[in-house]
Amino acid sequence: MTRFGAVDCGTNSIRLLITDVRRGDDGVLELTELHRVMEIVRLGEGVDATGRLADAALQRVREALTGFAELMRVERVEAVRMVATSASRDASNRDDFFSMTREILADWGVEAQVISGDEEAALSFRGAVDDFHPEEGPFCVIDVGGGSTEVVVGDYDGTVHAAASVPMGSVRLTERFLVDSPPTPEQLKRAHDYVAGQVERVLAEVPVAGARTIVGCAGTYTTLSALAQGLETYDPSAIHLSTLRFSALRSLNQSVLATDRRTLAENPVMHPGRADVFAGGVMVIDGLMDMFEAVNGAAKEKGSRGDAVPLEFHVSEKDILDGIVAGLVDERLARAQG
Questions:
Q1: How many angstroms separate the Cα of 102 from the Cα of each of 89, 110, 215, 222, 333?
Q2: 161 vs 57, 200, 276, 304, CA distance in Å?
Q3: What letter would DSSP give residue 320?
Q4: Which helix (H) or strand (E) holds 100?
Q5: Strand partners, 210
Q6: pTM score, whole prediction
Q7: For residue range 153-172, what is the model confidence (pLDDT) as tens digits?
Q8: pLDDT tens digits, 253-300
């Protein structure tokens, strides 16, 4: 069929997925991942305080995206979509960012597109559940980013029942609350209270109690899985579809929050650009565990065990990038049929 490229530029990182899509002899589409690349660019550095994208951050994005474009040319990628989330939505100098992406991606005639929190959640959901079984649904998919967290409940076929995007992410919490490393008890309390308020918004908007399987995607979850397994190197095959039980994860998170950034960065499974904001992501996940435990407690009080959400996260290496590719494939098929 063709090769597709998906680029996601968030608050903390910019990532690329190149997928080869062909139709097999049986007529079924076969998707083969060729490249999945991540660069820490910290586009959202200081945005929470200044309201604008820093020049140095824009330069980091330019360098990374230029490398992505060259790789896509080498791999003969035919169709590309780039999405921009969280940090670029409200920045006063956002036009500088979009004109840069238009210049670099001129070969494909595209530029970065700002997507809403709802669309971000839907794309993450579609990618994250791809390797699960339909009967494991309904699913609650959680994507913890640098500036925001998306929570969506839906079915395997992509039907979304409800979604919420709330302003809590690893970079946002670190810059706003977790100044010291390791954070002080007071900083942790302030972060905890902030996350608790955002979690209340999620509970009001998303029926998380109706989910049978909780799926966590993106770097905080995948790195926690690598740490929990004691991996000596970051191994996506070991991380994908792994399970993080709340009881054990609580202990691991406490250990992370008591560890300074330099020590975290020395762990071989930790991307060096993630270590300094990792505590913020962990605080988000702690708050989400509080939410699901409260849901379970309410279900037990009602005597309805069927409404209890299993107290474990299933970790997916697939995420919004895979959802973007799926959308590009849908568009290509629709044009072919039309």
A1: 16, 6, 34, 31, 25
A2: 36, 18, 35, 21
A3: H
A4: helix 94-104
A5: none
A6: 0.85
A7: 999 988 999 999 999 999 99
A8: 999 999 999 999 999 999 888 999 999 999 999 999 999 999 988 776
